[in-house]
Predict the structure.
Amino acid sequence: MGHACGHHLIAGMSVLAAIGAASFLTSIPGTIHVVGCPAEETIGGKALLVKKGIFKNIDAAMMIHPADRTEIVKLSLSMQRIRVTFRGVSSHASATPWKGRSALAALLSLMRAVDINRTTMPDGDRIDGIIKSGGEAANVIPDLAEAELFIRSRRIESHSRLLRRFIHMVKGAAKAFRVEYGIEYVGNVYYPLSPSRTLAGLFADQLRKHGIKIDNFFTDSEMGSSDIGNVSFVVPTIHPTLAITDGPCPAHSKAFQEQSGTVGAYRSVKTGAVLLTSTAAEIYKNSGLLSDLKSNTIFNIVDNRRR
């Protein structure tokens, strides 16, 4: 669909913010890094950069995402993209059906198992998926069927439990229909976002200073997934959103694609850059904030609610 999630605006904000921040580094020691992060919605470029140690010597990471609301802390779920393949035996569906072993039947059984298991999944656990292929002709029992699914959860620990549960479903479906199965992990695991409380507070102060309405300081509703969660596990991080629309307009929609190409959307690039630059300036001006950032990395509101 093109730029239906506003990533071109994110890039503009980041580059412009770095130029702005560099202007005050002539009198204050420090370094600004602009890290290009491709493939956020496929393999998870930031997850790979974390593994490569790109963020090893970084004190704080900030990125603003365009949205239909301005929110300081919007949590996100973990995510693992999985490709499941079943391989059976083809046969004529009318003449000799008993000679076949239906890969499609196993896949449909898996999808039903996922649906039924949703009723007993903990809050925040998600399994979403589609069937990619399920046969070539209606009169032939399919010997190959394939699906793509996403495993998501609020915490890494619960993500691992949900993944094990899903694998049991795959094995059960394969055993029930006497077919072979394959599980392929596509891309990197996305970690749930764990923002910095200190950075979030600094950013909120800048929004108020510039007279920008804050729709939510914290929200754990309508959560998607982003590889910036991986960054937040190694560096104090924030990933606020900035409204570029006048009302509700979901990302990955045709309406948001159109909105992200308007004059108003491009003006938000400057607004976002100013917010990032001024937040960075506060950190540089107050060296004591660095130790506070490192000791206050994890935002545990969700955990506290459940104690």
